[in-house]
């Protein structure tokens, strides 16, 4: 029995609320259960120095967790002088996931930065961030097209992400913190709307997992991301 009484293949309640940040070109408040992440997409009219003159633009991401996103206050990373290794890993993952479905040649000499700020954490913050970041990026591109800054939609596909794990011997979908902290295996899957695999992260916390368990987690992740992509489509309709 899962702590939430969900079935093994059930997502938490998911919401995608657009246009929540007045000044951002695109924004989305995404909720996976009690995990809430504010994603804002900001346009810069210049590409990174190493891309200038190449005819390509760039999409990148930053990730942070607010001090009271968790049960106890955590120090802001800016006060420590640099982001933690975990933060760097997550923001690079978000950036890679968004670039995997973006035609960078369609945004020449421009950069979009998607900031993902965790307001409340209850497991799955990186997967929620990726799912909400896609919506914010979509709306940023729509904003640019409405002003004739670009002529075509740079997005080639949807991208969404979900966690899976082995909890009490059973593969389950979309772990909340209580499950995540006690799971035998913790994994994250980033998939496109067409079913392509962008990234898989999986770690055995206790006993090593089997190939059969990995394939079952992938099956759960595919079904979960299909539902997330359907919610993205509903949100932008």
UniProtKB/TrEMBL annotation:
Gene3D superfamilies, per the entry: GHMP Kinase, N-terminal domain
> Per its record, what are the GO molecular function terms?
tRNA nucleotidyltransferase activity
Q: What are the record keywords, sorted?
A: Nucleotidyltransferase, RNA-binding, rRNA processing, Transferase, tRNA processing, tRNA-binding
An example of a Pfam family matching this protein is RNase_PH_C
Q: List the gene name.
A: rph
According to UniProt, the name of this protein is: Ribonuclease PH
Give start and end of each Exoribonuclease phosphorolytic domain.
11-140, 159-223
Question: InterPro entries from the entry?
Answer: ExoRNase_PH_dom1, ExoRNase_PH_dom2, ExoRNase_PH_dom2_sf, PNPase/RNase_PH_dom_sf, Ribosomal_Su5_D2-typ_SF, RNase_PH, RNase_PH_bac-type, RNase_PH_CS
Q: Which residues bind phosphate?
A: 86, 124-126
Query: Family assignment?
Result: Belongs to the RNase PH family.
The record describes its quaternary structure and partners as: Homohexameric ring arranged as a trimer of dimers.
User: What does this chain do?
Assistant: Phosphorolytic 3'-5' exoribonuclease that plays an important role in tRNA 3'-end maturation. Removes nucleotide residues following the 3'-CCA terminus of tRNAs; can also add nucleotides to the ends of RNA molecules by using nucleoside diphosphates as substrates, but this may not be physiologically important. Probably plays a role in initiation of 16S rRNA degradation (leading to ribosome degradation) during starvation.
The reactions it catalyses are: tRNA(n+1) + phosphate = tRNA(n) + a ribonucleoside 5'-diphosphate
* Entries under PROSITE patterns matching the protein: RIBONUCLEASE_PH (PS01277)
Enzyme Commission number:
2.7.7.56
Task: Give the originating organism.
Answer: Methylobacterium komagatae
